[in-house]
Design a protein that fits this description.
By secondary structure, the chain is mainly alpha-helical. The protein has five helices and no strands. The two termini are 16 Å apart. InterPro entries: DUF1759 (IPR005312).
Length: 79
């Protein structure tokens, strides 16, 4: 639950602020966020925004590609 809260800001964080830290409350938080922000259009816009903000990577730059995968794919920012 702490990791989820770290990924959220603004209205999304406010939507789950009063919930506890149990597994049940984590599932409840996911449900609240999915109901409020889980539409296909919103998710698609968030993914496109992430792609537009991502740095350009040269085809021979393995290190930059690794950083991109670690930062943008493995640990996506909360939307």
């Amino acid at each position: 639950m702490a990791r989820l809260r770290q990924c959220l800001t603004g209205n999304a964080l406010e939507a789950i602020r009063g919930l506890g830290v149990t597994v049940h409350k984590y599932e409840e938080a996911k449900g609240i966020l999915k109901t409020k922000y889980g539409s296909t259009r919103r998710l698609l816009r968030a993914y496109l925004d992430q792609l537009e903000q991502a740095p350009l990577i040269r085809s021979n730059d393995i290190h930059a590609y690794y950083i991109y995968i670690a930062y943008y794919i493995v640990q996506p920012k909360g939307t």
